Amino acid sequence: MVALNLPAFAHKTKQVEGKPYIFDLLRRKYVRLSPEEWVRQHLINLLLTHYAYPKALIRTEGGVVLNQTQKRTDIVVFDRQGQPYLVVECKAPHVSLTQSVFDQIGRYNHVHRAPYLVVSNGLVHYCCCINHETADVRFLDDFPMFA
């Protein structure tokens, strides 16, 4: 896998029938290692170790129904009251973070209504804060610490 613009961590990988797998820090099992999963696991590690997000409040590959279609959010972090706090959309490093990626996470957040959104391909990261009352969007220089 390619080096990312995220802190390295002691990840575990293995081969199953000639295919690479990585140990998922949250689900506590090996999952198929794709370029997007490589980014997701690095972002999970970042949220846990650098921003103090509790494991118990992070969900990966969570389902969301959007226009009667089942979709999956890459990462959703909940606050201590169980409300969505941060939604993360991960892309593979070779995928450009275009307007369509921002539109995708915006559609997911139409359901979740989280105050923070993150989009990353492991090389470039964007984080924004959304005021749902005023529809004001403000890009941040860093991810929010868990409160």
From TrEMBL:
Record domain Type I restriction enzyme R protein N-terminal: where: 35-144
Domain of life: Bacteria
Pfam families tied to this protein: HSDR_N_2 (PF13588)
Entry GO MF terms: endonuclease activity
Alphabetic keyword roster: Endonuclease, Hydrolase, Nuclease
InterPro entries: HSDR_N
Nuclease among keywords: yes
Protein name: Restriction endonuclease subunit R
Species, as recorded: Spirosoma montaniterrae
Upper lineage: Bacteria, Pseudomonadati, Bacteroidota, Cytophagia, Cytophagales
